[in-house]
Write a structure and sequence with these properties.
The relative contact order is 0.12. Strands 8, 9, 10, 12 and 14 form a 5-stranded antiparallel β-sheet that branches. A 4-stranded antiparallel β-sheet has the order 13-11-15-16, with no helix packed on it. Strands 3-4-5 form a 3-stranded antiparallel β-sheet. The N and C termini lie far apart (about 70 Å). Mean pLDDT is about 85; it is low at about 1-15 and about 25-30. The protein has 16 helices and 16 strands. It folds into 2 domains: about 1-375, no CATH class; about 380-485, Sandwich (Immunoglobulin-like). The chain is elongated, with a radius of gyration of 32 Å. By secondary structure, the chain is an alpha+beta fold.
Length: about 500
């Protein structure tokens, strides 16, 4: 889920004046308990501050990476290209094959442990700053504000009867949303079909059936999720909110309202003793800027995505009142109860749980980097031909057929020499010198021969070893074991 809290203060910013106490932009349901409350549109009020800046920094970083990578080239092809047709995954100078699924598995493990690690430290950082739902909703809300105005203007426009102006504004907004959403679909598909090929198909709309399906599928979901469903995706569809409590503890940094300092809340009146009330003036700004429409003063709720929009907004109000910042802030439950300062709070964040997560995560990352650094750009498989039995040939020899598959993982042509070792007298029959194209593979049929066993021998098989060595680099070699069968 996202928040619309950008760094540039709009005309109606909490810094411009202190708002009077108001209710949330979300219509409240009655006291009766319901299983599913009817959806009420949230008109998120924009704010500015350090956390709003970080959210937009993450928006820029994620989108520059997502939209930019397909345009980069490497050795005459797309730098990042998951070529499903040829079953080759290009990542800059690396070429991965389906047989190397181990790297993908390790990458997924790193992602999972990173989620555990950062959630244990500071809650839902992923949700509040880098989740695609957050990022795209932020972008869609920015477009909406530029066309329809701030949150008050948007509320008035939605309540107004249909008119030429309203129709024009809504049409412009939905058109820009649709174009942006479709381009996200094209970009997504370009990681699998190459951007160069897709660009040639754009003028005539000559995409293949699967390309067309995924462009519209991804684009439609972006349009609907970021434009309309927004907080509902986080509240009702995303499973992370449901199991976040398993990762939290009382030393996890979360967005928290300091009730001891803020209560009793209420409007400050002239002549009133300041000590009779808390610092919270009950302006409701924290609710107005919340992308999920919750009141952070009610404590930690599963709907909270940790975006800290309420922190920025409340700090601006505290500045206007000449009161210390931090009425709503990132802190831990233990720090709030025991009155710890920032340094003592951070010391307790470094606890056994986070140290264990961090150590495991660091170990896996080091192993992953080491595996990539020492990865040999050659794969070699040997299969004994299942349709050919061991047979006797001239010279008192027995012959077996073998299918050898040589895979060149580098992006340059390489030549290899194939040899065989085993019991005394073993011979290799066939052309044992092969050349493999860049990021290509070659199947070779070769025969191995061994002397026929002496009469009375009980041996029906032997182990032999095939070896392939690069003629350009002797250190580039692979060795595989195979079974040699004798006829009965």
């Amino acid at each position: 889920m996202s928040m619309h809290n950008h760094d540039t203060p709009p005309s109606e910013s909490p810094a411009s004046d202190i708002p009077a106490p108001v209710s949330s932009a979300v219509e409240e349901t009655g006291p009766e308990e319901v299983l599913y409350a009817a959806h009420k549109k949230i008109y998120v009020r924009s704010t500015s501050g350090i956390f709003a800046r970080w959210r937009w920094i993450l928006v820029w970083i994620t989108q520059v990476v997502f939209f930019g990578l397909p345009w980069l080239t490497w050795n005459g092809r797309q730098a990042v290209w998951l070529n499903l047709v040829e079953r080759k995954f290009y990542v800059f100078g690396w070429v991965f094959w389906p047989q190397e699924v181990l790297y993908l598995s390790v990458l997924l493990i790193i992602s999972a442990y990173s989620l555990f690690f950062f959630t244990a430290i500071a809650g839902r950082l992923w949700c509040g700053y880098a989740c695609p739902q957050t990022v795209y909703t932020e972008i869609f809300l920015w477009i909406e504000e530029k066309i329809e105005g701030d949150h008050s203007a948007r509320m008035k426009l939605d309540k107004a009867p249909i008119s030429g102006r309203k129709f024009a504004l809504k049409t412009a907004k939905y058109t820009i949303w649709a174009v942006f959403a479709l381009w996200t679909g094209v970009t997504f598909v370009s990681y699998f079909s190459s951007m160069e090929g897709l660009l040639k198909s754009v003028p005539t709309f000559g995409f293949g059936p699967w390309e067309r399906f995924w462009i519209f599928f991804y684009g439609t979901f972006t349009f609907v999720f970021a434009g309309f469903m927004r907080e509902q995706v986080c509240k009702y569809m995303c499973p992370y909110a449901r199991f976040q409590s398993v990762m939290f503890d009382q030393d996890t940094l979360i967005v928290t309202y300091d009730g001891a300092r803020g209560e009793p809340r209420g409007v400050r009146r002239k002549g009133e003793d300041p000590a009779s009330r808390g610092d919270c003036i009950d302006c409701g700004i924290c609710v107005q800027v919340c992308p999920t429409g919750i009141d952070i003063r009610n404590g930690l709720q599963y709907e909270c995505i940790g975006c800290a929009a309420c922190v920025d907004a409340c700090d601006l109000i505290m500045d206007k009142l000449d009161l210390p910042r931090g009425l709503v802030r990132y802190t831990t439950e233990n720090a709030l109860k025991r009155g710890w300062g920032p340094s003592e709070t951070l010391n307790h964040v470094r606890r056994p749980r986070t140290l264990i997560y961090g150590t495991i995560l660091l170990g896996i990352i080091i192993a992953f980097i080491w595996g990539l650094a020492t990865r040999m750009p050659l794969r070699f498989d040997v299969i004994r031909d299942p349709f050919s039995l061991g047979r006797e040939v001239s010279g008192g020899m027995v012959e077996n057929d073998y299918i050898l598959k040589v895979m060149n993982l580098a992006e340059e042509k390489r030549s290899f020499v194939i040899s065989v070792t085993g019991p005394d007298g073993i011979l290799l029959v066939g052309d044992n010198q092969v050349t493999v194209d860049p990021a290509g593979n070659l199947e070779v049929l070769l025969q191995a021969r061994l002397p026929k066993p002496k009469e009375g021998s009980q041996s029906r098989s032997d182990q032999i070893y095939f070896e392939v060595v690069s003629t350009n680099d002797p250190n580039l070699q692979r060795r595989k074991k195979a079974v040699f069968l004798y006829p009965n």
